[in-house]
Amino acid sequence: xxxxxxxxxxxxxxxxLTSVLSSFLNPFFRKVKISESPVAGESTKEESSxxxxxxxxxxxxxxxxxxxxxxxxxxxNQQYPADIQVIVVAPQKxxxxxxxxxxxxxxxxxxxxFIPESSRYMSRKKLAITLGVKAARNExxxxxxxxxxxxxxxxxxxxxxxxxxxxxxxxxYTRYDExxxxxxxxxxxxxxxxxxxxxxxxxxxxxxxxxLLFRKSRFLSEEGFRGNLKYIRGEYDFMxxxxxxxxxxxxxxxxxxxxxxxxxxxxAWCERHLFYMESRQHLERxxxxxxxxxxxxxxxxxxxxxxxxxxxxxxILQHWIITAAAFLSLLITMVLRTYICKKALTRFSVALPxxxxxxxxxxxxxxxxxxxxxYEKANKxxxxxxxx
Length: 388
What we know:
alpha/beta, 12% strand, single chain, 3-stranded mixed beta sheet
């Protein structure tokens, strides 16, 4: 039936308006700036040397022999006008790692140290980083992962140009390589996009990247990871959450400053989510950080549920005007959300088939629920180093 009464008009208007508004409740609709390409304004090597500070880079490999062999030269061979110290903190009796490090023993940039085989009351990762910081000869220290590849020999310069007197933290953007499954790349970009906006708005909460520059003096004066030493993972998150003070952090997300991380295993992917669910319970500003993503997902699902309900009921009742309005609102939703997301993906050179965007957006919330169920079922002692 073609009924043009006030109720039909009101319902149709609500459907159309909701489709538009819900599409704008979207992390990709919010502005995230891309850092300008570096070294464009530096005319001489002498000027560059004065501007860039000496940097120590800490790697803590664990069962990463292949990655260490492949990626270590990329860091040792950085074209950088100031001092570089590459510190590798490896487990004792890790003979394969030791063999690889021996190849570069004559490189003056490399410094190697080892951690004890066991540490009962402290995360081995945090212990390794702490030992690396103490061994660093430079004020500016970087935590990085050896499973990541720098884009060029000017990568460090891209990040270190942000080391100014008023900054204590510099976050470098990280993306997965092109061999990573599409959903993994999309989900990481989805969450990282939200975090990048928080960083640029002065509301930094955590760090989902694999490169973080910080000051050695502040790390030591405020006792490093004190307060979260027992938690096995989350070192990047805890660092940003603890040391950010509202204006001392800057994000570097230019292509030249972007690390590429190799495809994680399914186990590593799952563990990353579960360990974050544990870590976030001990981070400050958690509610404020989670409120907007929850609102985004709620708006997305409410809109789809409203449209599907309207289609089903209007077909049953043969209110074809409402049926047409519901289908039109669904079309508007699909076009707007696809366009907004595709534009953001293109800006950051994330190649993803257009038809996958909508199902991946909707899947974010359901995957989160799945990981939450796994976390609740997990043994909570698996997330801490205190094995009492």
